[in-house]
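Appendix B, example 12.
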Amino acid sequence: ISIFAIMSVLLVKTLTMIMPFKINLYQMITGSPILTSKANYLICGVLNAVVCFISIVFPKITAVLGIFGGISSVNICFLIPLIIYLQLAKDRWFSLKNLSAIIVFSAFCIAGWLSVVASIQGLLKK
């Protein structure tokens, strides 16, 4: 597979699949929920530039997908359930029951993020 084909797929995927992220990002920065076309083009351009930069720095697409997948899976599997649990808990976050959940899930998150850091270090050594 040529680098052009990979870049084309990434650019098209970014443009078509990232709209909710762009709206949320724009709302966090400006406070306005309405995404203007100028801001849409600017955010698309920045996101595409980031994707292109990552593709150039890490030419093996499997390594890039592994890094992003590792970061995402740790957050989805451990961090988000912990936050939801703490929001739904009737007790304060510093109660013994909640502190034990925080400690366990934090240990899992740290282990997952350290594995991502180790894989990045392995890529940079090659």
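The CA atoms of residues 7 and 13 lie 10 Å apart. The mean pLDDT is 76.
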